[in-house]
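hey so u asked for the seq, here:
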Amino acid sequence: MLYRRQLLTHGLWLLLAIVQPGASVAESAEPDGFILGARIFPVYESGQMVALELQELLPNSRFARAGLAPGDRILQVGDVSINSPLASANALRLLAGDQPVRVHIRDKAGTHRTINWPPDLPA
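ran it, structure tokens below
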């Protein structure tokens, strides 16, 4: 499946094209503004990108199945720290794939945890 969505960063829209291996290049059936079943926005602290925040999740999205909730922040995917628009695009590509990676999360309460991704693969 091809995901084409725009991510607002530093006042510029970054077009994300995420293609899963062996998938068709058809448009995603997700609502506008959703990437991988979620509304995701960059988080900046002191002018530096530090995370991607989940702001709304579709009920059967991978994020929802992984137990994530609106307000949770993705800090790192595999060895990709969320510290730039390019890094965030690379992290989203990893999240769209089926290769196992570790995802570092900080929830709304500030608790850090690490989850195995994708949630639909057997452990």
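The mean pLDDT is 80. The domain at 2-117 is CATH 2.30.42.10 (Pdz3 Domain).
lmk if thats what u needed
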